[in-house]
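Anyone have tokens for Microcin C ABC transporter permease YejB? Sequence:
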Amino acid sequence: MGAYILRRLLLMIPTLFGIMVINFTLTQFVPGGPVEQIIAKVQGQGDVFQSIAGSGDAGQQSGGAGVGDNSQYLGARGLPPDFIKDLKKQFGFDKPPLERFLDMMWNYLHFNFGQSYFQSVSVVQLVIERLPVSLSLGLWSTLIAYLVSIPLGIRKAVRDGSRFDTWTSGAIIVGYAIPGFLFAILLLVLFAGGSYWKIFPLKGLVSDDWNQLDWFHKITDYFWHITLPVLASTIASFATLTLLTKNSFLDEIKKHYVMTARAKGLTERRVLYGHVFRNAMLIVIAGFPAVFVSVFFGGSVIIETIFSLNGLGRLGYEAAVSRDYPVIFGTLFVFGLIGLVMGLLSDLMYVWVDPRIDFETRET
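Reply: yep, here.
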């Protein structure tokens, strides 16, 4: 097992490298880079894309220069070429793309993610500041989804076709059909002082005076703030996990070894949790990384924005809008690394649930 873990860890290196190559290549074709952002601010233009469009017209009038030609763009605007040259050098765009990419990856090997273009703060510091918010949403949402969905799915499998199975299926499908952002807004309106009750805070992960509170009130204040965002992040996960658990248990219950166990006089609880549970939970555990990653990546931007939480999702979105490339690639690297680690943990949980699984034997 140790050799398998080592191989998986080594495989993360080319995987992360491939992710960075693809995204770095894509950014080379996206208009409105950091140089254009600075120029737009210097010229007092609020929309950099409008500025780029104007530069394209000016470039065509001056001989067909493309939008990406910064010298034509800036010269048409009357800005001094030395100013443009200094900007390019400041952001590293005086080097060819391949050299810039290799320099970036060399720094990443030393965990040097650079400094934000526009915030004058290191990317590592920004990630450390925002990571607790995203981890809180991802971990608590995934934990609650599993704690509720697994017992509910087992109950539905045991009582398959009953009234309980029917109305719970309807309830979780309705919950699945509600978009996460719409449910988040509904929670704000109902419980955060929107139109009805003001039970929970409107924004933030903790209160402003959190550092002055004792340990008990720090814990309660944290859960007080995180309740609504976690509920909004979890709602869509219930249906998939519950139905997956139910179907997995139904498949196992119909197998011959279950009939044999019952014929030996074992109690239904012993049959379910002593024999069926271990086999049925394999496919559920296999979905753990997908559930965590979907909450951590997909829903984090919307939920963090609605509840004014400064997490990695919101950080990456704001960096993409402002073309803050060091922050974009830094958060992308962290997201990719967490996703790969979760995949490895999923395999380890396979072995923990069913020791008969041996990845070493399977690969040889």
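The chain is about 75% helix and 0% strand.
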